Hints:
Two copies of one chain form a homodimer. Chain A is of the alpha/beta class. Chain A is built from eight helices and six strands. In chain A, α1 (3-17) packs across α2. The model of chain A has no long low-confidence stretch (mean pLDDT 90). Chains A and B meet through α1, α2, α3, β2 and α5 of A and α1, α2, α3, β2 and α5 of B.
Amino acid sequence: MAERVAGPEIERLIQLLARLPGLGPRSARRAALHLIRKREELFGPLAEAMQVARERILVCSACGNVDTSDPCTICRDPRRDPAALVVVETVADLWALERAGATTARYHVLGGTLSPLDGVGPKDLNIESLVGRVAENAIQEVILAVNATVDGQTTAHYITDSLAHASVKITRLAHGVPVGGELDYLDEGTLAAAMRQRTAF
Amino acid sequence: MAERVAGPEIERLIQLLARLPGLGPRSARRAALHLIRKREELFGPLAEAMQVARERILVCSACGNVDTSDPCTICRDPRRDPAALVVVETVADLWALERAGATTARYHVLGGTLSPLDGVGPKDLNIESLVGRVAENAIQEVILAVNATVDGQTTAHYITDSLAHASVKITRLAHGVPVGGELDYLDEGTLAAAMRQRTAF
Lengths: 201, 201
């Protein structure tokens, strides 16, 4: 869109919307027009919510979660198991586990995975702080909930080595058939793992 | 995401983002996390751009375009052909034609198409104002750039009837093979129209 069509303000809005994941230049234009059409119901509230969130969002200095308080709501929750930590790659993974109600433990967000090719080393992740938390809080179990990818597994091994001198049990998520999944569509690795780790019925 | 995970401010931001076209609940969460990660480069500027755009955007009272001035930049542009109007369904279509540099005429945005099943009648569209503009501004050509859909064509016929008493030439966009298009992938209607309306080479 040439600038003269709709003014630099709209053009800038479209350019910034296009940088959101899931939106490209075309869908950003559509989103901007949708906002303009739904001025009262959506544009106003969204602009407001962005200002509020931008001003109030903090990163939890304990676990790396994002929240409007530091320590975050999860770290402050006294009902959480004080003896276990779930290690995740990203806040998105933390949210996914919370949606599933998968654990009552607290979390530790690594901020990514080790990836030598992309220049991501141990210093770039929150691994040192994990080792510190385990030692200081008498953690008894570290649950590695990293992705089942090569980088995720490499990171899991590195963390296991880093925690070798701590007397802590290290576990990882089970591999297996996704609930609702059909065997015919699953890869061989998953099927073999599901068979190896079969449980009593 | 339960509210306790990340606080009501983030939850509200995600809910509003999910109402943008092209984003669902899952991609809205991803977009929100992306904003939080890119706080300085993206979140701040986008929140700012939304506030500015929301405050300054107007709908042009002449043509229905959105801009930060009324009449809009296009309507005020003296280089625009004063004797022709391009009728489009939406502002998105206007922008598409402007990006293509397809015309030097001014526009008239209908705001949709006639659609009896959805309860959209002539009064819901900017048709009366089109008839008025044609009469008042000595318009000589009305170019119907509506979509080549049933509703679009119905609307085109209705507009033609409404302008029957005005001495104005009514044209419509050509049907034919899209530039770069392959014949094998085109529908029969388009191919037949392209053949009928073939031009000298």
